[in-house]
Specification:
With 507 residues, the chain is of the alpha/beta class. The protein has helices at 71-81, 85-100, 105-108, 139-147, 150-157, 176-179, 188-194, 196-202, 213-221, 454-461, 467-483, 488-503; strands spanning 27-29, 36-38, 41-43, 55-57, 63-64, 124-125, 160-165, 168-174, 184-187, 226-230, 240-245, 252-253, 256-261, 266-274, 282-284, 287-292, 297-306, 310-320, 325-334, 337-340, 343-346, 352-361, 366-375, 381-390, 395-404, 412-421, 427-436, 442-451. Strands 9, 10, 12, 13, 15, 16, 18, 20, 21, 23, 25 and 27 form a twelve-stranded mixed beta sheet that branches. A ten-stranded mixed beta sheet has the order 8-7-11-14-17-19-22-24-26-28. Helix 10 crosses helix 11 (467-483).
């Protein structure tokens, strides 16, 4: 394990403050999908479908910005979306910032060089308006989300759902009882046009364009994402959910999400993401900004199960005012490379920030994840709990930042980062950067690295478990205290995903 203080351009801006083989049943199957294409992969005898998101429909978008990124690409996006001139200038300025910043390969590794920005398609859409009823959604797109279980989840336990297909939302709806409370839940594209009075005030303020190369890229070509506004004192009882689906090859998805919880309000937002497995690179580069005003609470839950050709390069940050609370609950599975460090700027007195993170790096994958906590007021509290699992030649990296300046009093931080190595070829690194100045503040940091012991596996196998089941049981035990913090529907799915990863890690 490599322990060091390591500052870099994507992780921390200059100002600092704001900134083994298949299982024994190795058969192949190709499920027939009306109008759709499935990609054949090894499957095991486990009942749950490992590749639930591994299918695509050969659709012909009516709106296509073409291949590569130039100012003409930006003009096309602005024109087809009917955006105002200030957005055109905002995008073009971001494009220039993106071009001026180098790839941060000096710390993330050479994997980023595999991205060819000149062959990516930056905007694809059907050209149809967002639908409020699943009956109105185009057939193939509706079938996609039905296979992923989104309409069923909406009926069972959600207060509202947004479903994005490539660059734009295909479906968005909020239950009447919630909208009657004044809650706004719509796509960012619609919010930009319909609610500029609220949207523009905070847009790009928590994560500025120049924060890092990929926030600049998102600012140049962003499309889709969610906008939520919760009025003062309103507590949304059921979660709001967005599902981001990539269907096209050589594509980049760049959603932009902004959530504002007004004074004394509460909201939980959940997002899920999938994409088919292609042999070419897929790019996902989102920006998420959260604003919790005085006494408000925001929970942001993510379960990402990306295919291994996806580069997942995401910037997420929240601003917590006096006595407010922001909690990121984050699970990262899949992708070729993930770079994601949810953060909270604790701006108001007695504000609280928390990041709960699980990362599973499979063979050939790199999960570079962590958290940032910037204390900017007295009596603020932050908590970071990160657990990672590395399988095969997978690599998990924890990169954390805690900053408490000298003039503050009564601030507290707790950081825990634990890693589990499954194989002798697995790798884990940790780069904690904790800066505490002055007196009257407290911080504690704990880190551990462990490996599943042969005696432990032998014991469980003597009780009738297969090797894969024994590995899965050990891993689920390792992350169980964090999984229990996910909503029930997500925690069940997360445990299943871990089971499937472990089944495929032995042979």
């Amino acid at each position: 394990m490599n322990n060091s203080t390591y500052k870099n351009e994507l992780f921390l801006d200059a100002r600092g403050a704001l900134d083994v083989g298949p299982g024994s049943d190795d058969r192949r199957e190709l499920e027939a999908v009306p109008g759709g294409k499935n990609i054949s992969h090894p499957t095991t005898s486990v009942d749950v479908n490992r590749d639930i998101g591994d299918f695509f429909y050969d659709l012909k978008p009516t709106r296509d910005a073409g291949v590569g990124l130039t100012e003409r690409t930006i003009d096309y996006i602005v024109d087809v979306k009917g955006e105002p001139d200030w957005i055109r200038e905002f995008r073009k300025n971001a494009y220039r910032v993106f071009k001026s910043k180098p790839l941060p390969t000096h710390w993330a590794g050479d994997e980023l060089k595999e991205i060819d920005f000149d062959v990516i398609r930056y905007y694809l859409a059907s050209g149809e308006a967002t639908k409020r009823s699943w009956d109105d959604v185009p057939k193939e797109i509706k079938q996609t989300f039905e296979r992923l279980g989104i309409p069923e989840s909406e009926r069972k336990f959600l207060a509202g759902v947004e479903a994005q297909f490539d660059s734009e939302a295909a479906y968005s709806n909020i239950k009447k009882a919630v909208s009657d409370q004044g809650v706004i839940f719509m796509g960012s594209t619609d919010a930009l046009k319909e609610r500029p009075d609220i949207f523009r005030k905070w847009f790009g303020k928590i994560i500025p364009t120049g924060d890092n190369k990929f926030s600049a890229l998102n600012s140049a070509v962003f499309s889709g994402g969610s906008f939520i506004y919760v009025p003062p004192g309103v507590k949304v009882k059921h979660p709001l959910q967005a599902y981001f689906r990539i269907n096209a090859e050589n594509f980049g998805q760049f959603e932009r999400t902004l959530i504002i919880a007004d004074e004394g309000s509460e909201v939980m937002y959940m997002e899920g993401c999938t994409a088919p497995k292609f042999t070419t690179t897929t790019l996902h580069s989102a920006v998420v900004e959260l604003v919790a005003l005085q006494g408000a609470k925001i929970q942001y839950v993510t379960v990402q199960n990306w295919s291994p050709n996806v580069f997942n390069l995401v910037t997420k940050r929240g601003l917590a005012m006096e006595d407010a609370e922001i909690k990121w609950i984050d699970c990262n599975i899949g992708s070729r490379l993930t770079m994601k460090y949810p953060g909270v700027v604790l701006k108001g007195r007695k504000s609280r920030g928390e990041v709960i993170s699980i990362a599973l790096a499979g063979d050939g994958q790199h999960q570079d994840t962590g958290a940032k906590m910037i204390h900017a007021a007295d009596e603020t509290t932050s908590n970071i709990v990160s657990k990672s699992i590395s399988v095969g030649k997978g690599r998990a990296t924890y990169r954390g930042l805690v900053h408490i300046p000298q003039h503050l009093k009564g601030c507290k931080n707790n950081t825990e980062c634990d890693a589990l190595l499954i194989n002798s070829t697995s790798r884990t690194d940790t780069y904690p950067a904790i800066t505490v100045r002055g007196t009257g503040n407290a911080t504690q940091h704990e880190a551990s690295v462990s490996q599943i012991g042969t005696e432990q596996i032998f014991y469980m196998r003597q009780r009738g478990l297969s090797k894969g089941q024994a590995m899965s049981l050990a891993v689920n035990g390792f992350v169980n205290d964090l999984v229990s913090q996910f909503p029930m529907e997500y925690s069940v799915e997360l445990k299943r995903l871990i089971d499937l990863e472990m089944e495929g890690s032995v042979g």
